[in-house]
Amino acid sequence: MQWAGATDLDMPATGVPAVRRSTAWPATAWWPAVSTPVLLSLLAVLLLLTGCATVPDLSPDADPVQLLPHHTELLITLPLSEQRAGIETVAPELFEGDLRPILNRTARMTVGRTPPRIPGGVPTLHLVIEGGFSANSLRFGLPRRHGWSRERVMGVRWYRSGDFGVLLLDDGVLYAVLAEHPESHIRAALLRMMHPAPGGHPLSLPAARDAGRIWWGSSDVLLDGGIGAHIPPQLRSMLDVSGQFDYAISPSGRLLMGGELHARSETSARALNVSLRVLLPQILRTSERPNITRDGTTLRIVNIQMEPDVVRGWVEELLEDFL
User: What is the pLDDT of residues 107-121, one digit of tens each?
Assistant: First the structure.
């Protein structure tokens, strides 16, 4: 595998591992507060990052998820190369205006959030965008006259505009961060790529490129956002769980999802098992009952189905809260 534009990025002699390409937007409470025009303008300049580059081969052992901090508390992947039609059906707002050129060049976008560094602070937003981007046009796509500066960390060039930082990796993979001090996150991402943790990264991306994924480390991340309004009060007290679900959206917008919830104790898992069997169809507004099984503190839920109008309703709320 290769790093795109190593010459432009002034790669150190030691090199940095290349990224292996592995094969719903959240509410305001989940993400840093940023105005829609500012975020769209920052992302819009990325549409220029297309072209070709020739660079030396480096290690193929790194994965895009390693760009995300280990303390990420929420992760959402959008498999645009395989489910673009379905995602556009349920979230047409994403494909309007400045975002469309970016998403048209994106195979998969992974969005992660990390908690504030200090109580009452602003969470950090991380984006890993896999698509047709290159370093050859990076310098032209992010010009100084538009507020972008060229920075260096560990001998590697990255680009900054205020609190927004962009780093280009191999195979057209972009790492972008929205934070008060983006340089510290750029440095940390490079270190994670160069020195992966011995036990591996606690997070993972779907092996299948046609699968989306939603992962959260604490239910507070979900309940404090737009989804919380859909959770009956009698269930909220039981949802002290982490979870991971993979999803697929058909071109018509119908969603099929399955995954696991991890409770803190077997007692909590048993109570949650009973409640979900009764309340989940009501929450999802469907007559199809998901299949729920329990193994200790783990609940496995498959055959979660949602009709397009229900999915659109949820997504609209989340987009409204976020944007």
Answer: 888 989 898 888 888
